[in-house]
Amino acid sequence: MTRWLCLTLFPITLISGCASLGGQSKTPIAYESDLNPAVRCLCLWSSGEAEGNGSLSRGFVGQLYFFNASDAAPVAVNGDLRVFVFDDQGTQEEQARPIHEFEIPADTLQGFVKPTQLGPAYDIFVPYPRSGRDSANCSLRVRLTRADGSRVFSDMAEIKLAGPDSAETIARNNA
Q1: Cα Rg of the chain (Å, integer)
Q2: Separation of alpha carbons 43 and 121, rounded Å
Q3: CA nearest to 126, candidates 54, 55, 66, 45
């Protein structure tokens, strides 16, 4: 029930601009500064679905937090966000390269920042680019690039998309 509720309400909160499911924070959003820039990124990912163009798309629901070196609370950031998506399909060489890169420009990214009880967070949905409903073991990594060229990377996160095993996966497991 909780999973269904989250998957149903998440796209609605993105569209409606709701601050959070727990109510709006009275604290203004704290931003990184030139003297105290964000240096770490924590990404909380889960599999999920969102509606787009009249159909459901499976993919990854993420909440991203950025931290500077001196504060325990997250800060909002200024820059372009890129999400790299990898999966377990194809050869080892193919699996080492992202199957897709999703770019969120800085001005668009500001529309995703929401106050939370911890501090500012970015709620995003990244669709899985392959068609079909087969299972896939995926990895995601986030990169923030600021106007001055400096970058912040997240750790690689692993997410499994549920579904039946593909013929390729069955053959690989039986080899």
Answers
A1: 17
A2: 10
A3: 45
Eight-state DSSP code of residue 32:
-
Q: CA-CA distances (angstroms) from residue 120 to 4, 27, 67, 76, 87?
A: 25, 10, 10, 6, 29
DSSP symbol at 19: S
Are 90 and 66 spatial neighbours (Cβ–Cβ below 8 Å)?
no
Tell me if 75 sits within 8 A of 38, measured CB to CB.
yes
Q: Are 51 and 34 in contact (CB under 8 A)?
A: no
User: What separation in angstroms does the CA of 133 have from each of 77, 122, 139, 152?
Assistant: 35, 27, 17, 33
Closest CA to 38 of 101, 98, 113, 102: 113
Average pLDDT of adjacent 10-residue blocks, the chain of 175 residues: 41 42 63 94 95 87 96 95 96 95 97 94 96 92 97 97 71 62
CA dihedral 150, 155, 159, 165 (to 10 degrees): 90
